[in-house]
Amino acid sequence: MNTTSPRETVIEARGLCNRFGSQSVHEQLDLDLFRGEILAVVGGSGSGKSVLLRSIIGLRRPNEGDVRVFGQHLSQLDEAQRSRVERRFGVLFQKGALFSSLTVTENVALPLIEHAGLGRADAEHLAGVKLALAGLPLSAADKYPASLSGGMIKRAALARALALDPDILFLDEPTAGLDPIGAAAFDQLILTLRDALGLSVFLITHDLDTLYTITDRVAVLSQKKVLVAAPIAQVAETEDAWIQDYFHGPRGRAAYLATQALKEV
Amino acid sequence: MLWDGALARLPDHMELMTTTVTSANATLDTTSSPACLRITGDWTLANYASLKLCTAGLAGQYDSMTRIELEQLGKLDTAGAALLVELLGTERLAQLAETDTHLPAASRALLQTVYCSLHDYCIPVKAPEQAVLVQLLERIGSAVDTLKQDTLHLLGFVGLILATFGRLLLQPKRWRLTSVVAHVEQTGLNAAPIVALLTFLVGAVVAFLGATVLVKFGASIFTVDLVAFSFLREFGVLLTAILMAGRTASAFTAQIGSMKANEEIDALRTLGLDPIEILVIPRVLALLIALPLLTFLAMLCGIVGGGLVCALSLDISPAMFLSMMQNDIDARHFLVGLAKAPFFAFLIAAIGCLEGLKVTGSAESVGAHTTSSVVQSIFVVIVLDAIAALFYMEMGW
């Protein structure tokens, strides 16, 4: 990929500070998401990955600094404009966050009915398409979230995130709790959707296989800011104890070797 | 690389927000030979409704000989791709996606993804709804069945509590006094102000009612008897029990239910601990202690409320009120009222805990069972009170 030519940013976070009481999570954090790329954010537990996600999508007002999405400040928009921007987000929450009082199909159909103005029958039909796309078995479509397995919840939540064909997809640990086959299929699905729809993907993950197979850039969140944001090969070479442990520990090496093997085939 | 193509023809969304969306269409040109199906415009979610109509109109009007032109296809998203799959069928589209060179690589990849996932996947057709009458009967039937099941469960659970309690009685080391005291504080002490206030007000209201009605017969002095009888025998214990059903049964269900939803109960079991012994017995014991005490408080406050109204509007002085109570009212009435308290307490706590244990996985289930526990415990309290009233009447107490 060409990283030297100027690229359009869809998300621009500048000087972000997030504090909880006296505890500071982010200090002067800068991060860009370019159009059409898959950016993975990694960091130790408690390094504020989810907080960063919440600040970007406007669920949390950062203590300092600002976030521009499509060149606009979310916090400065009025309600209608903001809703229009938010419609271009697809968010997959860590635990799925499916509405427990609606069936899986209804969960996916809800944004279609509310925002795309489709009739109920059309919306549920299209919801079926999205569920198929996310790889959810047919039998799960009429179930309630409480009776789904963890992997199915992830897929259903992805289908809901994709409902409005968003421009930016936010994924919070999408492959956590999936079996390796499911996780690999999930990675492939995200890659295909990105290619086909030109999605920009903001991905929080601990899955080293995902990092090596689908990401364009990896941003490492450490010491309250983005330590480095670059293609994975470059990140893995960075002189930092945590990064070295992360990418060159036994799991990191295994994932790296596996990707190399894949590339040779 | 594959997706560089995607970048090149990315829709400019900022522009899209200000300009109108290009209209999309599918037209069948029968004049040419072979016939030609033209797919034009943006096949996106914004055009979904009109495209749906359009494709429905075209269904069955073309065959495998029809040439399909995709040159003028604009933007394509998953909704549009799904419509194309439905319009053309997966096989035809698979063929097109592989051979049609006019189509950008990204759109081809999208079409492939969509038809691969829609292959072997038919959107379910909902079973037709049954007639209203059948539905009504079905619901009545299932409600009766639920009532039966609930009753059986409750009886079984009461047995389980008694058995566990009996077993623990002989092993003082396993009594969880701290837990019991904490629950007495929560259910008893913390509830005292609200119980006192409510019964005081009801006592005043009963006295007002008595004064209004009895004054016509010149018997307003008997307001004292009315207040004392009603609070000692019925209102004291009944009001307290209903308050406890609303306040404590729901709290028990929510506490135990959220533990159940969080798999904490399962964790207790795997640690070889008995959830009944650890969670249920202390709560039942605590309510067995708290409810009679609160009942006593309720009786006092109700009588004080009644006495105040008597003093202010009927000119019955507190001293006279007390001496009338002493003359007319046996200690028997107090005992008869108080005797009901432990039974109410036991059932309220049992229902609260049982509903908590019935919670399944979701947070929604916690809410549903909390509602159910309040309704059930109030119902049981009132039914039991009615039975007790009949029993006392027959016994002449």
UniProtKB/TrEMBL annotation, chain A:
<dbReference type="InterPro" id="IPR027417">
    <property type="entry name" value="P-loop_NTPase"/>
</dbReference>
<keyword id="KW-0067">ATP-binding</keyword>
<dbReference type="GO" id="GO:0005524">
    <property type="term" value="F:ATP binding"/>
</dbReference>
<dbReference type="InterPro" id="IPR003439">
    <property type="entry name" value="ABC_transporter-like_ATP-bd"/>
</dbReference>
<dbReference type="InterPro" id="IPR017871">
    <property type="entry name" value="ABC_transporter-like_CS"/>
</dbReference>
<dbReference type="InterPro" id="IPR003593">
    <property type="entry name" value="AAA+_ATPase"/>
</dbReference>
<keyword id="KW-0547">Nucleotide-binding</keyword>
<dbReference type="Pfam" id="PF00005">
    <property type="entry name" value="ABC_tran"/>
</dbReference>
<protein>
    <submittedName>
        <fullName>ATP-binding cassette domain-containing protein</fullName>
    </submittedName>
</protein>
<feature type="domain" description="ABC transporter">
    <location>
        <begin position="11"/>
        <end position="248"/>
    </location>
</feature>
<dbReference type="GO" id="GO:0016887">
    <property type="term" value="F:ATP hydrolysis activity"/>
</dbReference>
<keyword id="KW-0813">Transport</keyword>
